[in-house]
Design a protein that fits this description.
The complex is a heterodimer. Chain A contains five helices and two strands. Chain A is mainly alpha-helical. Chain A is globular. Chain A starts with a strand and ends with a strand. Chain B starts with 8 loop residues before the first helix and ends in a 7-residue tail after the last helix. By secondary structure, chain B is mainly alpha-helical. Helix content of chain B is about 75%, strand content about 0%. In chain B, helix 1 packs antiparallel against helix 3. Classes of the chains: A mainly alpha, B mainly alpha. Chains A and B meet through helix 3 of A and helix 4 of B.
């Protein structure tokens, strides 16, 4: 899956650690998701979407 | 800052459990050696109990690792740990199976079975290395 996490994070001027803290996950996890090495579970995807006040499909999309 | 200074949450609890169990293992091994590995060793039920005493903390390390998996709420970290576990299990069980057949035909010397547990723990390290090479993260437990 592709995602816009890095862009959304940059728009808010958040570091990976800031985002990790807000999502209550590790910075490693944020990095793995941003770089496409790990696709989050549906519950985590919802938490990410809620945090950015967007729909999941506005953040994640099909493709490499 | 102590050895646990930068370690938090489930990893911290695991490390404390691991070191406690290793201390218990060493203590029970010293006791077992003292009473069983001598000219006139203890016999009967007490011998079985003494011989099994060092095994219990080692068995408990498997429990501690299980607790680490359960208590790790970060799903990516848990994925790394599970991958490590799969590598460790595959390595130790495959080696034990192969060695067992070689031993059966007298092609290799006998190895005490507890070494397969040791190999499993070594396999966690191999799993961390594979995580590092394939995902770029080694996880937090090796």
């Amino acid at each position: 899956m592709k995602n816009r996490l890095k862009v959304l994070r940059a728009e808010r001027d958040w570091t990976q650690s800031d985002l990790a803290e807000r999502l209550e996950i590790s910075r490693q996890s944020v990095n793995a998701i941003e770089t496409g090495r790990y696709d989050p579970s549906l519950p985590l995807a919802f938490r990410i979407a809620d945090l950015f006040d967007l729909a999941i499909e506005a953040i994640f999309s099909q493709g490499e | 800052m102590g050895i646990l200074g930068s370690v938090k949450g489930p990893q911290r609890r695991y490390t404390i459990r691991l070191f406690s169990l290793m201390a218990m293992y060493l203590a029970s091994l010293i006791i077992a050696e003292r009473y069983l590995d001598r000219a006139e060793p203890v016999t009967g039920m007490l011998a079985y109990i003494l011989a099994l005493m060092p095994a219990l903390p080692v068995i408990a390390i498997f429990w501690a690792f299980g607790r680490l998996l359960v208590e790790t709420t970060d799903e990516y970290q848990r994925l790394l740990l599970i991958r490590q576990t799969l590598v460790a299990t595959a390595l130790s069980m495959a080696t034990a199976t192969g060695w067992g057949f070689l031993e059966n035909y007298d092609l290799v010397p006998h190895i005490p079975a507890f070494y397969w547990a040791v190999l499993w723990f070594f396999g966690l390290g191999v799993g961390a290395l594979i995580n590092r090479l394939t995902l770029g993260d080694s996880g937090s437990c090796a």
